[in-house]
């Protein structure tokens, strides 16, 4: 495989492309399969490294994973090994989700954590505090988090300080087999989390409110294998749309859910794009030069953090007059007739994240 990618620019992007399943959904589906013995089938699965790594994590736990085109078959044993391998978990943070699934299924779990023996300041504390309120006990030794639930997991009321996607998912995975009812308040509302809840419901879980800020899970005694098609990847779709807009071309993304990109579509329209959609597709025609817009990244349904870099690159070719209106202080910008072409000013203020920081931290 080549160690470099050579791009020859100057052409408009035109045409259509079909979107596969969301990485941020399919990884959670693979983990969720551990909750029920038997063969599960996950469809619309992208062929990416993270999926392969998660498959190896599951195989270490005792499951067998095989791929058939865009479908992955997971055969889960009656008694999974409740230990996730350190080297694989540290390659991918989504692996922490095996914690809730293995605790629910086996009553104990050992999962490696990045960063050693102090997890108090990391986002993992949301996971741990929530699981502790459900009856779990934790011991952290040499970077390995050992969890157990001697009396089993029980339903409880959990309020998340921040609508963390990972914490909501971990608590959801643990609660479906807990005794009683668990309520997660200030829960994440991302489409991928709602898709996870739909997969769990097909397995026999009792879940109300997924996709809202309050999720109620009624624990059941057991789950069964299921077949599920992964929700399309909104980040992949959004990336292709911005690429089309950036080159002034017309690009259609198919097999997507426009509702999942509502804010991103609004911002593209505000830059001068023509945006149209059907139930399963979005078409964007980019302007000759975009108009600058303000963007704040927020949890869903706000503008997705992972779409920020694409918009930064897109807005870097906006009309100079637009930038002058958004700049906090005077700058000098070299025009295209200068030997070095366009030069970035010291600081842009066209894009800001949810904490008010500049997205264009570019240096001249």
Features:
364 residues; alpha+beta; UDP-n-acetylglucosamine1-carboxyvinyl-transferase, Chain; four-stranded mixed sheet; 11 helices; 29% helix; disordered C terminus
What would your notes on this structure say?
This protein has 364 residues and is of the alpha+beta class. The chain folds into 2 domains: 1-19 and 232-364, Alpha-beta prism (UDP-n-acetylglucosamine1-carboxyvinyl-transferase, Chain); 23-229, UDP-n-acetylglucosamine1-carboxyvinyl-transferase, Chain (Alpha-beta prism). 29% of the residues lie in helices and 19% in strands. The chain has helices at 23-32, 49-61, 86-89, 98-106, 124-133, 165-175, 191-202, 234-246, 262-270, 308-315, 320-326, and strands at 14-18, 38-43, 64-68, 71-76, 108-112, 137-141, 144-148, 157-159, 181-185, 206-208, 214-218, 227-229, 250-254, 274-277, 281-285. The protein has a 4-stranded mixed sheet with strand order 1-13-15-14, with helices on one face. A 4-stranded mixed sheet has the order 3-4-2-12. Strand 8 (157-159), helix 6 and strand 9 form a beta-alpha-beta unit. Helix 1 runs parallel beside helix 2 (49-61), helix 4 (98-106) packs parallel to helix 6 and helix 6 (165-175) packs parallel to helix 7. The radius of gyration is 23 Å and the shape is elongated. Residues 115-121 and 328-364 have low confidence and may be disordered.
